[in-house]
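The data are passed on as follows:
___
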Amino acid sequence: MKQLRKNEFKDLLEMNELLFEEKDYSIVADLPKLGIITYYPKSNKIQVHKTNVWKDDGFYFVKNHLKNC
């Protein structure tokens, strides 16, 4: 399940032509209007670095954010 989430998140970023860096346990990306985020596929959480806010259900949060941009 973790690998599936990770691949879906990478596909989402690639479809929106966003740069990201894949690490062992996370994916770091720079999103418009949010800044740099870290996605943790095992727990499906997002950390927004600028405000140090954690969002649950990270995949859908990013998907909805990109849709509204």
Remarks:
- The helical segments are 2-15, 58-68.
